[in-house]
Write a structure and sequence with these properties.
The structure holds two protein chains of two kinds.
Chain A: E1 4-7, E2 10-13, E3 19-25, E4 33-38, E5 45-49, E6 53-54, E7 62-67, E8 70-75, E9 85-90, E10 97-98, E11 102-106
Parallel strand pairs in A: 2-11
Antiparallel strand pairs in A: 1-3, 3-8, 4-5, 4-9, 5-6, 7-8, 9-10, 9-11
Chain B: E1 3-7, E2 11-12, E3 18-25, E4 34-41, E5 48-53, E6 59-61, E7 69-74, E8 79-84, E9 93-101, E10 107-110, E11 114-118
Classes of the chains: A mainly beta, B mainly beta.
Chain lengths: 107, 120
């Protein structure tokens, strides 16, 4: 199985901050990486797929980059509704696997 | 707009079979572009991929669950189902049904999720 390692696992940030979350795959996954946002008691929501393609309806302050094994999710100017847990997911090979999550809390 | 809704018992006894159904509305399960499947999330933990299926009967399962798992798709009812045998407390989780794109590899949309507790 491909292991997905997210960092940090937890972060405190303020409204207006620029936030960066990284995800590293244990082997090359090309650009087959997606990012999800999950709020408490809710299903995850797709933000970005194929490493950098923004899902329809997702605000442009979210962006993704990377390929191969190293990927980044950036949130520019963090908004109150962005406080949530973020997961990366690789889709290069079965079984699909997720990172352990990054919880973004209010400082 | 495609919507997915899980249903099934919230409490299952150890060693019994967990059975869930997901009804899909606003779209057809008979597509070569999408697979349909399940993700679960134990309390306070991360996401685990269970498996997916195509309307043709092709399935892909998580190896850790394969021996206990059946995913099937009923295009006449526009629903997919999950059966997990011989459950233990470790199978306690919120179970989500999802659509998987074979071209992008992403999971979207997700059902709202259904809590399943394994306990006697």
């Amino acid at each position: 199985d491909i292991q997905m390692t997210q960092s940090p696992s937890f972060m405190s940030a303020s409204v207006g901050d620029r936030v960066t979350i990284t995800c590293r795959a244990s082997q090359v996954i090309s650009s087959y990486l997606a990012w999800y946002q999950q709020k408490p008691g809710k299903a995850p929501k797709l933000l970005i797929y194929l490493g950098s393609t923004l899902q329809s309806g997702v605000p442009s302050r979210f962006s993704g980059s990377g390929s191969g094994t190293d990927f980044t999710l950036t949130i520019n100017s963090l908004q109150p509704e962005d406080f949530a847990t973020y997961y990366c997911q690789q889709a290069n090979i079965f079984p699909l696997t997720f990172g352990g999550g990054t919880k973004v809390e209010i400082k | 707009q495609l919507q997915m809704q899980e249903s099934g018992p919230g409490l299952v006894k150890p060693s019994e079979t967990l059975s869930l159904t997901c009804h899909v509305s606003g779209g057809s399960l008979s597509s070569d572009d999408y697979h349909w499947g399940w993700i679960r999330q134990p309390p306070g933990k991360g996401l685990e991929w269970i498996g997916i299926g195509l309307y043709t009967g092709t399935t892909y399962y998580n190896p850790s669950l394969r021996s206990r798992l059946t995913i099937s798709i009923d295009t006449s009812k526009n629903q997919l189902s999950l059966k997990l045998n011989s459950v233990t407390a470790a199978d306690t989780a919120v179970y989500y049904c999802v659509r998987w794109s074979s071209s992008s590899g992403c999971l979207d949309p997700w059902g709202q999720g259904t809590q399943v507790t394994v306990s006697s």
